[in-house]
Amino acid sequence: MRNMLLTAIVAGSASAAIAGGPTIVLDNFAADPNDQAGGPRTVSAFIVDNPFGQAADFTVDTGFSFDGINGAAIFNSGVGVKQEGTILWDNNGAGLGLDAAALGVIGFELDFLLVDLDFSFLVELSSADGSASLTGIIGAGGARTESLMLGDFDSFGSFDATAVDSVRIMFNLSDDATGSLDFILTEFRAVIPAPGAVALLGMGGLVASRRRR
Predict the structure, then answer these.
(1) Cis geometry, peptide bond prior to residue 33 (ω within 30 degrees of 0)
(2) Do residues 121 and 87 touch, judged by C-beta distance below 8 A?
(3) How far apart are CA 197 and CA 105, in angstroms?
(4) H helices within the chain, ranges in order?
(5) How far apart are CA 140 and CA 75, in angstroms?
(6) With contact defined as beta carbons under 8 Å apart, do 158 and 204 qualify?
(7) Would 142 disulfide with which of 10, 40, 133, 188, CB 3.0-4.6 Å?
(8) Cα separation of 19 and 159, whole Å?
(9) Phi and psi for 208 in degrees, rounded to 5?
(10) Cα-atom radius of gyration of the chain, to the nearest Å?
(11) Can you name the residues that pair with 89 across neighbouring β-strands?
(12) 19 in Cβ contact with 90 (< 8 Å)
């Protein structure tokens, strides 16, 4: 990993977290294999372009430690390298069997220590007969939280929020990959409603409002 990754970490203002209550940690990257999301994670990377033959990788470092934070997923690209990274939670293909609707999930949060350049992302939840996904841009900056509201997800097919079999996040999508990108991701969480909420806001209802046929 390039030294600039650690030396560039600065104290920054975190973006506003989702207005809600408790969160469920799905992965804090402090253990391998991970069992917080209901099954082990798979981390992979694909080199889109490497004009100068530089090193690049996307790995989980369970021994990472900084300012009380333990464990991180580290995306490290050499000069000019464009790479796409993926983290998949699917219990090694057996399926998570996650009832996100019963939990009342209303969104997700990603905690970063560092993002040195803007990059694209995709988050996808899959069930047996459909999926729900969100694409967007994560901006450059220091320590911050990126919030993803489920009301912004698009649903495809017959997505079933009561039986989510896999959760996948793709970073720096190959169609418009950013070169020389580095980031440090320290936690991935699901957000549930605050105690005393008038109604339990399940994932299914929020996603269905944007269903595509």
Answers:
(1) yes
(2) no
(3) 13
(4) 4-7, 100-103, 203-208
(5) 14
(6) no
(7) 10
(8) 25
(9) -60, -25
(10) 17
(11) 41, 167
(12) no
CA–CA dist 185, 54 (Å, integer): 22
**β-bridge mates for residue 126, sequence order:** 131, 166
Could you give the 3-state DSSP secondary structure of residue 3?
A: coil
Q: Is 92 left (phi over 0), alpha (psi -120 to 50) or beta?
A: left
The pair of structure tokens assigned to 187 is 């936690």
User: For the chain (length 213 residues), average pLDDT per consecutive 10?
Assistant: 33 42 90 85 97 98 96 98 97 92 94 98 98 98 95 96 97 97 97 58 34 32
* Domains along the chain with CATH numbers: 4-8+20-212 (2.60.120.430)
**Spatial separation of the C-alpha atoms in residues 147 and 106, rounded to whole Å:** 11
DSSP state of 176: G
Give the three-state DSSP class for 83. Answer: strand
Element (H, E) at 121: strand 119-127
Report yes or no: 200 and 104 within 8 Å, Cβ to Cβ.
yes
Confidence at residue 16, expressed as pLDDT on a 0 to 100 scale: 42
User: Given the structure tokens 């889109």, which residue do they identify?
Assistant: 48
* β pairing state of 211-212 and 154-157: parallel
Report which of 73, 49, 48, 70 is spatially closest to residue 59, judged by C-alpha positions: 73
Q: Which residues contact 102 (CB under 8 A, 6 or more apart)?
A: 162, 202
Across-strand partners of 107?
149, 191
